[in-house]
Amino acid sequence: MKSKQLGNTGVQVSELALGTWQYRGGEEALRAGIELGATFIDTAESYGTEPLVGRAIRGIRDRIFLASKASPRHFRRDDLIKAAECSLKQLNTDYLDLYQLHWPNYAVAIGETMSAMERLVETGKIRFIGVSNFTVAEMRRAQAQLSKARIVSNQVRYSLVDRSAEQELLPYCEAQQISLLAFSPLATDFEGLRRSDRGDALGQVAAAVGKTRAQVALNWCISRPAVMAIFKANHVEHVGENCAASGWSLTPEQCRLLASSVTGYRSRSRLERFARRVARRALQYAGSNLGSPTAMDVDEGKDRE
């Protein structure tokens, strides 16, 4: 599988990662992906899959780039350090390659949170710092609180049917050498993506390159140099199909055809994004949105069953 540099770290990771939100495939499917070169695995404390991932990578930890996320209810300094230690225990490992803030918590000062993240780097419990569901402004504020470390990634929803990241976030990440980790790269329902492709551009391109529609959609997603894609697949055959989306490239013309042919895609306006964050801020200050994702933030990882 083709690899890409994570941010500006000099570290190469597989451009396709194995996701574990609402994952039901067991150790076998994860191991199959690893053997096919998808050695980047993403989990989170809120997913409940850290113990499973820990079992799947037992004996091969040195081959794995392992990422997890802290829930916003743990963004106080001491709580965040404890949350990281708990994830390490659940994953049966001494360190995380990438530790991410799952989504912003407006009720906790970002300086306190980033101080704890930097402390985790200094003590060797994590190698790199990432964020998830952060805007450009939120990334800038978070980075400003770090004295030595850098934010190397932002994990957000990105696919042919949700291109909101292309407005500001992706150009910023490309300019700053920050990786964009795309979740739900096949949309929350691949059949829904196909329905949006009314002219069957996916089918046309798939026939031209000798690949499946899903492979073409994934390859389109990772065609941008800064983008890596996190897919979820519960069955070994789907893992194999998705992993085969790496190692080859669509032409610029094919990428443009796909982008222009898939209709009904989302590209949230500034006003909509602002309204969503105001609502989330109100919920967090009210104390009702600190424990689990809401409909606004959930990592919809259906992708492939």
The geometry reads as globular
Instruction: Specify Rg, calculated over alpha carbons.
Output: 18 Å
The class by helix and strand makeup works out as alpha/beta
Q: Which percent band covers the strand fraction?
A: 15-25%
Largest sheet: 8 strands, parallel, barrel
Q: What order do the helices and strands follow?
A: EEEHEHEHEHEHEHEHHHEHHH
Low-pLDDT residue spans: 291-301
Give the beta-strand count: 10
Q: Percent range for helical residues? A: 25-40%
Second-tier CATH architecture: Alpha-Beta Barrel
What's the overall average pLDDT, rounded? 91
CATH class: Alpha Beta
Strand order of the largest sheet: 3-4-5-6-7-8-9-10
Supply the number of structural domains.
Answer: 1
Secondary structure tally, helices? 12
Under CATH, the topology can be stated as TIM Barrel
The CATH homologous superfamily is called NADP-dependent oxidoreductase domain
First and last CA, distance: 22 Å
Topology, pairings included?
Blueprint: E1 3-5, E2 12-14, E3 16-19, H1 26-35, E4 40-42, H2 50-56, E5 65-70, H3 77-91, E6 96-101, H4 110-122, E7 126-132, H5 136-144, E8 151-157, H6 169-176, E9 179-183, H7 190-196, H8 201-209, H9 213-221, E10 227-231, H10 236-243, H11 252-261, H12 270-285
